């Protein structure tokens, strides 16, 4: 593609390329300019304070830590609203020049990470009179020209910019990028009006995501509270005639689940197969928050499955994580019936109890406390199937078990729908970030 270099109104060199984004507001049709990093930014002074040098209680000067950029902060941070730590003591701050303190529109780049998220950016907003410094493993940058608020935060976290960083990353266990390297990148710049339109639109998307996350958090809190109220006896169910059910009876788990055993424990990689020729193999990594998921799909040979047929899962079995995040469990549905499993405790229902009720008990705070007592091991905690055989828990009559399970499952269904919607919003945002920038 042909290109030439000219000077803009600020006497900065512009590398002229005829580039436009794939997705654009219809009122804009001018080409975007590519400008070298050094002609867009001045790099400011950062510090090397560790977490031990910071606190969240009091102080005069706040500090942006690279870990917070990677994990907590979005493309921009409202300094007045975000929980940003203070620097302990002020006696070492005299070495920082006045221009080192961050202000609205400044960009902070995380120059170190454990993966390719290195280079993640956050933009300062609403700083007002708050004194803020850029901390350990960060590159603070101040634009030399005016940009629409939040535009740089969104642009520099987009694939369009980040792909420039990938070949510049160094390190094996820890990835990093230097100031010298990042200075070789370019920034794509549309008109101020288009920057503003893009930023305001993406801020709305971010707001929708935050509101959805809040809705899910509220639902999860309600669900957790109801779960504990039920199993701690604060919420009682009645039958269709409005009468109380009989008192709950404490039983040993094996009375209702007579076949409790371990899934296969050992090396299984030699028996891996594919989806077409193998049998699904469920592991602890597939069980989270009371559900079996497909985040990792593993298959084993049919010969291996036949050899370990006793570990074949059936509908209504409960599978519990035996090592690692011990105690997380799920009820096997028709989708996973016929699968085999690895290092899970399998509990087969005798037909007189509701598996969903029992699984919910294990996931309640009451159940978790009782399971905690059974955990063994120092570095990696685990639980034994022999201990689960003797595990005691309260059983209502079957009708009340089903009513409890149906109530809690209905809330789970709503929660899952809300989480699906959240993922859809995040997917939309990801697509917008990929297509609205060049």
Name the features.
438 residues; alpha+beta; Adenine-n6-DNA-methyltransferase TaqI, Chain A, domain 2; Helix Hairpins; 5-stranded mixed sheet; 27 strands; 32% helix; 22% strand
Task: Tell me what the structure shows.
By secondary structure, the protein is of the alpha+beta class. The chain folds into three domains: 23-190, DNA methylase specificity domains (Adenine-n6-DNA-methyltransferase TaqI, Chain A, domain 2); 191-240 and 396-438, Bipartite methylase S protein (Helix Hairpins, Orthogonal Bundle); 249-394, Adenine-n6-DNA-methyltransferase TaqI, Chain A, domain 2. The chain is 32% helix and 22% strand. It has helices at 37-40, 66-71, 151-155, 159-165, 179-182, 192-231, 253-256, 302-307, 355-363, 365-374, 385-389, 398-435; strands at residues 4-7, 13-19, 32-36, 41-43, 54-55, 61-64, 76-78, 86-87, 107-110, 112-113, 121-125, 131-134, 138-143, 175-176, 186-189, 249-252, 259-262, 272-273, 279-282, 287-288, 291-292, 298-300, 318-321, 329-331, 340-341, 344-348, 392-395. The strands form nine sheets. The protein has a five-stranded mixed beta sheet. A hairpin with a 2-residue loop joins strand 20 (287-288) and strand 21. Helix 6 runs antiparallel to helix 12 (398-435), helix 9 (355-363) crosses helix 10 and helix 9 (355-363) packs across helix 12 (398-435). The longest helix has 40 residues, at 192-231. The protein is elongated, with a radius of gyration of 28 Å. The protein starts with a strand and ends with a helix. The mean pLDDT is 93.
């Amino acid at each position: 593609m042909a290109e030439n270099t000219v000077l803009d109104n600020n006497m900065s060199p512009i590398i002229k390329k005829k580039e436009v984004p794939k997705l654009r507001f219809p009122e804009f049709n001018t080409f975007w300019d590519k400008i070298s990093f050094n002609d867009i930014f001045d790099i400011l002074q950062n510090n090397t304070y560790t977490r031990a040098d910071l606190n969240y209680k009091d102080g005069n000067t706040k500090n942006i830590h690279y870990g917070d950029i990677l994990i907590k902060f979005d493309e921009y941070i409202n300094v007045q609203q975000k929980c940003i730590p203070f620097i302990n003591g002020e006696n070492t701050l005299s070495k920082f020049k006045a221009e080192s303190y961050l202000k609205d529109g400044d960009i902070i780049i995380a120059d170190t990470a454990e993966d390719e998220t290195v280079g993640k950016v956050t933009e300062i907003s609403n700083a007002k009179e708050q004194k803020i410094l850029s901390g350990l493993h960060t590159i603070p940058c101040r634009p030399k020209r005016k940009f629409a608020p939040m535009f740089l935060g969104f642009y520099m976290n987009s694939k369009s910019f980040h792909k420039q960083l990938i070949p510049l990353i160094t390190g094996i266990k820890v990835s990093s990028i230097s100031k010298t390297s990042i200075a070789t990148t370019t920034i794509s710049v549309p008109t101020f009006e288009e920057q503003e339109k893009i930023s305001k639109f993406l801020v709305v998307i971010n707001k929708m995501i935050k509101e959805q996350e809040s809705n899910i958090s509220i639902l999860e809190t309600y669900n957790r509270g109801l779960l504990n109220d039920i199993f701690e006896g604060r919420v009682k169910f009645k039958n269709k005639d409005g009468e109380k059910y009989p008192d709950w009876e404490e039983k040993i788990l094996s009375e209702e689940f007579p076949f409790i055993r371990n899934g296969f424990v050992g090396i299984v990689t030699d028996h891996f197969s594919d989806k077409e020729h193998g049998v699904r193999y469920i592991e602890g990594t597939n069980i989270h928050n009371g559900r079996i998921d497909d985040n990792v799909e593993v298959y084993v040979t049919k010969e291996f499955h036949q050899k370990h047929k006793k570990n074949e899962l059936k509908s209504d079995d409960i599978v519990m994580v035996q090592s690692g995040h011990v105690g997380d469990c799920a009820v096997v549905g028709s989708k996973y019936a016929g699968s085999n499993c690895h290092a899970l405790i399998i509990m087969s229902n005798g037909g007189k109890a509701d598996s969903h009720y029992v699984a919910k008990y294990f996931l309640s705070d009451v159940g978790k406390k009782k399971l905690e007592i059974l955990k063994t091991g120092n570095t990696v905690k685990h639980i034994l199937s022999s201990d689960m055989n003797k595990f005691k828990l309260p059983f209502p009559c079957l009708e009340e078990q089903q009513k409890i399970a149906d109530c809690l499952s209905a809330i789970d269904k709503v929660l899952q729908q809300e989480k699906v919607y959240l993922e859809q919003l995040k997917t939309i945002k990801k697509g917008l970030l990929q297509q609205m920038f060049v």
